[in-house]
Write a structure and sequence with these properties.
The protein has 220 residues and is mainly β. The protein has one domain: 3 Solenoid (Pectate Lyase C-like), CATH 2.160.20. The protein contains one helix and 20 strands. Strands 3, 4, 6, 7, 9, 10, 12, 14, 16, 17 and 19 form an eleven-stranded parallel sheet that branches. A seven-stranded parallel sheet has the order 5-8-11-13-15-18-20, with no helix packed on it. It is elongated and about 70 Å long.
Length: 220
């Protein structure tokens, strides 16, 4: 069983035998135990499609519409989801690296044991995204993104770019935000209830408090 640790979080990873995977390019084919490399699914509609025990490498899924279905036990590398719409998809035990979710709309997504590493989520919209177990974002770009009504407790964000990330009605209790700059977050303090910070982030938190409470700070 492959695992990795991010902060205090232990994440189960996919455990694939590359030699046992078949090469597939058509999304209507069986997507279990497959290698999907440099496939173009741009603009397609994926209805209740399940990808299981597979590798997606350099695939183009941009501008697609994926409703229901799941990703289970997959490695996803350098794949482009920009401008796509994912709704009601379950993502479990997946490692996603170097992939682009620029402007992607993710709605009613359930995450369980998912690692996003070196991914771009700039201008992405996450609505009612839920973490059922360990989820981590490492070295990800989340600038100008919006998280709305997301329940992501105990998630870890490490060395991410969070400028102008907007949080609205989110539950992040236990989430580890150490190692990130929080100064330019667009959020009320209620969205940060119960998060873990380090001492170096306290000035950022003070800045957010001044904004949220509409305080006037003057010199004597």
């Amino acid at each position: 069983m492959r695992t990795t640790t991010v902060g205090d979080l232990r994440i189960l990873l996919p455990d694939l035998d590359i030699d046992d995977l078949d090469s597939v390019s058509d999304p209507t084919d069986d997507l279990s135990d497959a290698t999907i490399e440099n496939a173009s699914w741009r603009g397609v509609t994926l209805d209740d499609v399940t990808v299981r025990g597979s590798r997606l490498i350099g695939a183009d899924v941009s501008e697609s519409n994926w409703e229901a279905g799941s990703l289970f036990g997959c490695e996803i590398t350098r794949t482009d989801f920009s401008g796509a719409t994912l709704s009601g998809v379950n993502i479990e035990r997946c490692a996603v690296s170097g992939s682009r979710f620029t402007g992607t709309r993710l709605t009613d997504i359930r995450l369980k044991d998912v690692l996003f590493e070196g991914c771009r989520f700039d201008y992405a919209t996450l609505t009612r995204v839920t973490a059922a177990r360990a989820v981590a974002f490492v070295d990800c770009v989340l600038t100008d993104a919006t998280w709305s009504s997301c329940r992501l407790p105990d998630t870890v964000l490490r060395s991410c770019q969070l400028a102008r990330l907007e949080l609205d009605s989110c539950h992040l209790n236990g989430t580890d935000l150490r190692g990130n700059t929080l100064h330019d977050l667009k959020t009320g303090l209620g969205n940060l209830r119960g998060v873990t910070l380090d001492e170096d982030q306290l000035p950022d938190l003070t800045h957010l408090a001044v904004q949220d409470l509409n305080l006037t700070v003057r010199k004597r």
